[in-house]
Design goal:
By secondary structure, the protein is mainly alpha-helical. The protein has 3 domains: about 1-270, no CATH class; about 370-450; about 460-565, no CATH class. The protein is built from 24 helices and 7 strands. The strands form 2 sheets. Strands 4-3-5-7-6 form a 5-stranded mixed β-sheet, with helices on both faces. Strand 1 and strand 2 form a beta hairpin.
């Protein structure tokens, strides 16, 4: 039975995490940093120091870059290789959550918790981007789970080999997380597991000084072993970086990139303490309405009717520690909170199964529970809303046929209606299954209709124009568009032009240069007297910056941009202006 559960979870993850990750193009976001740095790592042969645009990139450790670079060497430089580490991390997280839920409760709870992780929109989005955050969440979750098994969860006599194996897994997980994003990968598991380690020692003291001494000795030796193993795996790369770049690198990484990122607004705008609450609700969609099922247990706990079991205490603390930790930081980003979702998925799964079991025992298997009905209606309503938003935003999807958009709207609408119908019927036991189907439909609709198109993406079109318009020796700049991802497709360094004045100076060069900018900036520069010639253009919707407001109030004038490739000198010395197709005007009649 357990093997069939694992097979089911892998199949679901294939649809939600892996299917179609070779498209769309690398987004104009942080994703481009990791995709391009991996490419430059392969190209330069420098596997120690990551580079972006042929400059040092010290912001993050090296592990994700290594994984991307290995993928490029295996399957070629493409979007699939760049995103595959995130998708694999999502799969591992799903299986870890299944194992945790099964160990703490039962296989049914573990299966539903794993399904929630595999089909939550937050995880699906993170698994489809070349970013290290889901990999970090994977290492943190594995580190917590392995540490609990090795240090806290009681084991029968003679189980020391199993316990030592778990300690090895914990050490490797902490090291992997540290090499992915830094000290937070060790700090969070320590904060989660630490109270339970202390509790275990205090419980041993109640059994007498000899027992307490024995437990303390073992705990210290185990912690030293985990720390030493992590240290041995982490130190070589940091030592190599220090030998290459000096002690200033350590100061920049630990102080500037970690401490200041947490306690200052240098990298992220300040956000309120409660910022992550709506982020978690959105990230757990379409399962977040299940949080309503927590209301009765919480009320019973407050009234003293119900007590917290040890397993529940572990999972609740596991969820609260990352939430409180990241909420206390000044600089916040939505994807930072990913480590909180696995324990929340376990709690949601447990709440649903307990509620359904209680309702069935009171009124039979074909009963209808009002709160479960509300949960299902809200969850299904999100599908209806997304169908409506896709219809509203159809004018932004100018390169998608109306028939395809209508198909997407119909699929989203019917999948949402299916959830609602089951929720209000006497077949509420099917609610998780129909939510899974609705989630898969939504994720694949977004992937194939909203985020990508059948032909080359706009950034690929501009990169192709760059390559065909001039050899690599001709420098090119870009101003306020394709800020990060153009470099990946052009395959050569660019000049970053952060202001219109810099773009003007660049285009006034005596040598031939190329420049990528918006049509609006192109016209303004022309009006100021800069002599430039258009080589080609494309229309562009930045899907990496899509927001709920954009979908609710789509405005093609505001949300769509025309991107232009221009040059200051024509290759043949001809000064005739070019038309929008990049050809000379023919004035001979």
């Amino acid at each position: 039975m357990r093997a069939s559960y694992v097979f089911l979870l892998v199949a679901i993850c294939f649809l939600t995490f892996f299917q179609g990750i070779g498209r769309p193009a690398i987004m104009d976001s942080d994703e481009a940093f990791y995709a391009e740095a991996g490419r430059e790592m392969v190209e330069s042969g420098d596997w120690t120091t990551p580079h972006y645009n042929q400059e040092y990139r010290f912001e993050k450790p090296v592990l994700y870059y290594w994984l991307v670079a290995v993928g490029y060497q295996t399957t070629g430089v493409n979007e699939l290789s760049a995103r595959l580490p995130s998708a694999i991390a999502g799969l591992i997280l799903t299986l870890i959550t299944f194992a945790c839920g099964s160990r703490f409760y039962n296989h049914a709870t573990g299966l539903l918790a794993g399904v929630i992780v595999a089909t939550s929109f937050g995880y699906a989005a993170a698994a489809r981007q070349a970013l290290p955050d889901l990999l970090l969440a994977c290492f943190i979750t594995l580190g917590v789970w392995a540490s609990l098994n090795g240090l806290v969860i009681p084991r029968p006599p003679g189980a020391d080999p199993i316990r030592r194996w778990w300690l090895c897994v914990a050490g490797v997980a902490l090291a992997g997380g540290f090499l992915t994003k830094g000290p937070v990968a060790v700090l969070l598991p320590g904060l989660v597991v630490g109270p339970f380690v202390v509790k275990r020692y205090l419980s041993a003291r109640n059994s007498g000084p000899h027992k307490a001494s024995s437990v303390l000795t073992r705990l210290v030796l185990d912690l030293v072993f985990v720390t030493a193993l992590s240290f041995l795996l982490v130190v070589p790369w940091f030592a190599a970086m220090t030998a290459t770049h000096g002690l200033s690198y350590l100061d920049r990484f630990f102080v500037t990139e970690n401490l200041q990122r947490f306690v200052t607004d240098r990298y992220n705008a300040p956000r309120p303490f409660w910022y992550y609450i709506p982020v978690i609700i959105g990230g757990l969609t379409p399962w977040s309405p299940l949080m309503l099922l927590w209301l009765r247990p919480i009320r019973r706990l407050i009234q003293g009717v119900q007590r917290v079991q040890s397993a529940e205490a572990w999972v609740v603390i596991w969820a609260l520690v990352p939430l409180v930790f990241y909420s206390a930081s000044i600089g916040k980003q939505p994807r930072y909170i990913l480590p909180v979702l696995p324990p929340l998925a376990i709690l949601l799964a447990r709440a649903f199964l307990m509620r359904f079991q209680e309702a069935s025992s009171n009124a039979g298997l074909d009963s209808r529970d009002r709160l479960l009905a509300v949960v299902g209606v809200v969850s299904g309503g999100s599908g209806l809303l997304l169908g409506f938003l896709l219809y509203r935003a159809s004018n932004l999807l100018f390169d998608v046929s109306p028939e395809v958009i209508v198909t997407g709207v119909v699929l989203l609408t019917f999948s949402g209606l299916g959830v609602i119908v089951v929720a209000v019927s006497k077949k509420q036991r099917l609610l998780p299954a129909v939510i899974v189907i609705s989630s898969i439909v939504t994720i694949l609709t977004a992937q194939y209709i909203v985020l990508s198109r059948s032909g080359p993406e706009p950034v690929e079109e501009i990169a192709a124009l760059l390559r065909s318009s001039a050899p690599k020796s001709v420098p090119y700049g870009r101003h306020r568009v394709f800020v990060r991802n153009l470099l990946f497709y052009a395959g050569r360094p660019h000049v970053a032009l952060s202001s219109r004045e810099q773009a003007r100076t660049f285009l006034e060069s005596r040598e031939r240069v190329l420049c990528v900018l918006t049509e609006a900036d192109f016209r303004i520069l022309e009006e100021t007297g800069v002599t430039i010639y258009e080589l080609g253009r494309t229309r562009y919707l930045n899907t990496g910056n899509l927001t709920l407001r954009t979908l609710m109030f789509p405005d093609s004038e505001e949300n769509l941009e025309t991107v232009v490739l221009v040059t200051n000198l024509l290759p043949d010395g001809n000064s005739e202006p070019l038309n929008s197709e990049g050809a000379h005007h023919d004035e001979s009649g």
